[in-house]
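Quick illustration, no need to memorize.
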Amino acid sequence: SIKDDSIYNAQAEREIANLLEQSGRTEEAIATLRHLAEANQDMEALIKIGDIYRRNERHEEAILAYNEAEERIGKDNILPNYWHLYYVRGMALEQNGNWDLAEQNLQAALDFKPEQPYVLNYLGYAWADQGKNLDKARKMIEKAAELEPNDGYITDSLGWILYRDGEYKEAVKHLEKAVELLPYDPVINDHLGDAYWKVGRRLEAKFQWERAKNHIEDGNAALLANIDKKLDQGLPETPAIQQARSNMPEDTVKDEAMAPPSISNE
């Protein structure tokens, strides 16, 4: 037999929880991890509880689980081993609509792991989407793509920030690669459709938008409506980030371009 507090038992319980989650038995998976957290003071189990909630879009419960993990570890005792706590909590906060706290958590993750490609990508993409810290965002995404050149989501981010910066031909190259890596992702197919439209490949753009529509999951009404509008009307001429840049005073753009990358984003 195996002692209840052995490392082997902890690994077995984590694997059981993974299998339970994969089979849709979410509450049983959480209960298994909760037992592990209480019996072994296992902080990774608490973080994994938050991850399950987050993957199931139960963001407030995810945040509570992550907060509990931080409290048990001790905010002043967070070691590089637990950098991912700030990353996953940042994602949950962002998905729950609390960007200010999300940004703080993502920056904290970068304090521990300045070259972690997924945190670089997540924060850089979020900034770019908001038209914020544009040069830093691009450098962060370029660094993430250098570190993980075959990650579809990171490749998409690189293509999308090039698109939003008006570099359409380069954007097409990276977005085509992203679609090869993740052919059924509706957002990535939608991005490639936008880039095709901007380089004059209108039929291919409409094909990609239709392809994106076919892979949209129920509940994503906003993306569906946006694609339907593009299929009907095409795209306006000026990307959002170019508009953001044109609205910035010239000295602000210069200062931002000269600023060093932020403290370096799973």
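Residues 116-266 form a domain with the Serine Threonine Protein Phosphatase 5, Tetratricopeptide repeat fold (CATH 1.25.40.10).
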